Amino acid sequence: MGIRIGQQILLPDIAPLGDALHYYRDGWQALKVLEQYWPLLTEAQQVTVHVQDKYVAVRCAANGEMPIHAMQTHAVLSGFLRLADVVLGVQASNDVKVHLQESSPHTELFSALLKAPVTGGCQYDQVLFPATVLDSPNPNHDDERFQQALIQCDRTLNSLRDHHLIDLIRERLRFQLEEGHYDQQQLASSLNMSVRNLQRRLNAHHTRFRDLLDQVRAELAEQLVRYSEAGFAEIAHQLGYEDPSSFNKAFKRWLGLPPGEYRARHKNSTPSA
Question: pLDDT band at residue 11, thresholds of 50, 70 and 90?
Answer without folding.
Answer: very low
